[in-house]
Amino acid sequence: MATVLDDAVRSVRPIMPKRPSRGSNFWFRSQGGLLSLLGILVVLVAWQICADTNVVNPTFSSSPIDIAKAEYTIFQDGSIWSTLGKTGWELLIGLLIIIVGGIPLGLIIGANNTLYHLTRGMIDILYSVPFVLFLPIIIFWFGIDNESRIVLVIWSGILPLMMNTIAGVRSLDRDYSRVAKVFCTPRTIYFLRVAMPATVPYILSGVRLAIGRALVGAIVAEFFMGSGGLGFFVQQQAAQFNTAESMAGIVILAVVAIVLNNIVGGLYRRYALWAEPQ
Amino acid sequence: MSGSHAPTASDAPVTLEQPPNSSGLRAHDLTLGYKVGRHREFNAAVAGMNLEIQRGEFAVIVGPSGCGKSTFLEAVAGLVPVTGGELTFNGQPILGPDKQRSLVFQQASLFPWRNVRENVAYGLVAQRRRGKQDQERVDHLINLVGLREHATKMPQELSGGMRQRANLARALATDPDLILLDEPFGALDAMTRETLQEELLQIWQSDDGRGEGKTALFITHDVAESVLLADRVFVFSMAPAHVAHEVKIDVPRPRDASWKRSAQFTEYCDELLEALHSGKRAGQGGG
């Protein structure tokens, strides 16, 4: 998708290939990011002080330094790799299927009025009922292996993406199609140059939601099935009072979540900045 | 005059007493309208319209708001189907949008994900025209409408006047034979509107406009605007519209804004205003 859009943009812009950047000043641009890092730092320092002065019991609360040490240990002895591999594999496959399947499905359902009304009720039900509730049945159908967990990841993540994509297609501005008509735009060009770019902001917001819910899905599946993975690891360590190790697992997941979010954020700034209110 | 004009194609056989003008726009006994409401009643916006615009002419339609002038323009653009009568351009009946005709929209309707240059080039992209001279034409038009410095800006970063300039350049970029303008300056403030009127006048009078035999059809409710721009002004009646009055503005070009202060200009305006008001009265009397 990105390459098609890229070509489209490049092919008609031979004069000045670079878009002017908003706020070239480095400090100005990174101010928001630095402030949010500062906020995290304040919490960590306060936590460390509370643990050191026994305001809270470090056995239960652990402390940032202990967590850092635990992080070092679990990576050092290599025990974490198979755990991460398991969760990472589920997430990778799950998210790929969500994106590759969810976007076209959303586009098709959104573009067809009959299909939209046919599926609307079902999608609403599946989205509104907490997906955890389906877990026993999913286990019953797919067992407690990888497939089952991938199914839960997809189940939890695909609906918000589809709903957003459908909303994007259905709210396509009437003016856009009028302009396309007047200039005799063929269907393929209309799809690639008008319908797709107009829907991209909705799709990317959907992907962002899908990632969040897919992470929840993966962890919940591991909690319940007890067959490895990061969720299982965190639960097991906590049960053995290894608070620091348990939290070290949580930190890994937080980093993954932030990285994925930032990737989508970057795509959004590149392809959908126009949709932001000025 | 009532709105119950039969939607069917004219039942009386159309006798072509004159051969249809093979170049230019021609409407003969034209009916346009929509089916509205629960009973799908036919609501005529244009009825029994006869109108002829020569090739190379700048024609302006003035009419009260809601009189059906926009519907007429959309029909010429091919966005609204012809319900009855004939509507032809260069002898060919208008059945839908065509590459020979392009439209300057009332709202700029630029694509917010394309920058100014990409928006101006949209028609060419849609029509798969990637030739060197097409690209040069885009650059030339961007200069012509004064957006050279803003070519890489996004539409959201432009003022209303600049957006309409890009809208105009986009319509000219495909090099159409007929350019349709739907109250393009209606939503602008008075100062910007005057500037843009003058610029349109200059573009039209330059080689790029007239020299290539382009025809223009411009819609407005501003009488002074119509006199300034037009070779011929058509005054539309209240809905369902027909041509209530036709005035040839027999003033040589190039014209400029200073002409607007002349007595001749005021006379034309008075004539049109008079026609507009009597048309309104007639419409109210009959409706």
Total count of strands of chain B? 10
- Return residue spans of chain B where pLDDT drops below 50 for at least 5 consecutive residues: 1-21
Mean pLDDT reading of chain A:
86
How large is the radius of gyration of chain A? 23 Å
What sequence of helices (H) and strands (E) makes up the elements of chain B?
Answer: EEEHEEEHHHHEHEHEEH
Shape of chain A: globular
* Overall spatial form of chain B: globular
Could you state the oligomeric state of the chains shown? heterodimer
| DSSP strand tally of chain A | 0
Compute the average pLDDT of chain B: 85
The parts of chain A where pLDDT drops under 50 for at least 5 residues are: 1-23
Largest interface, with counts of residues having CB < 8 Å to the other chain, equals: A-B, 34 and 38 residues
> End-to-end span of chain A in angstroms?
26 Å
Query: What order do the helices and strands of chain A follow?
Result: HHHHHHHHHHHH
Note down, in words, how this protein is organized.
The complex is a heterodimer of chains A (278) and B (287). Chain A is mainly alpha-helical. Chain A has 12 helices and no strands. Helices cover 80% and strands 0% of the residues of chain A. The two termini of chain A are 26 Å apart. The N terminus of chain B is likely disordered. Chain B has a 6-stranded mixed beta sheet, sandwiched between helices. A 4-stranded antiparallel beta sheet of chain B has the order 2-1-4-5, with helices on one face. In chain B, a hairpin with a 6-residue loop joins strand 9 and strand 10. Chains A and B meet through helix 1, helix 9 and helix 10 of A and strand 6 and helix 3 of B.
Helix and strand topology:
The complex is a heterodimer of chains A (278) and B (287).
Chain A: H1 2-11, H2 26-52, H3 58-61, H4 64-76, H5 79-111, H6 113-128, H7 135-142, H8 146-170, H9 174-182, H10 187-225, H11 230-239, H12 243-271
Chain B: E1 25-36, E2 41-53, E3 58-62, H1 69-77, E4 84-89, E5 92-93, E6 101-104, H2 116-120, H3 122-126, H4 132-144, H5 160-173, E7 178-182, H6 190-205, E8 215-220, H7 223-229, E9 232-236, E10 243-248, H8 263-286
Parallel strand pairs in B: 3-8, 3-9, 6-7, 7-8
Antiparallel strand pairs in B: 1-2, 1-4, 4-5, 9-10
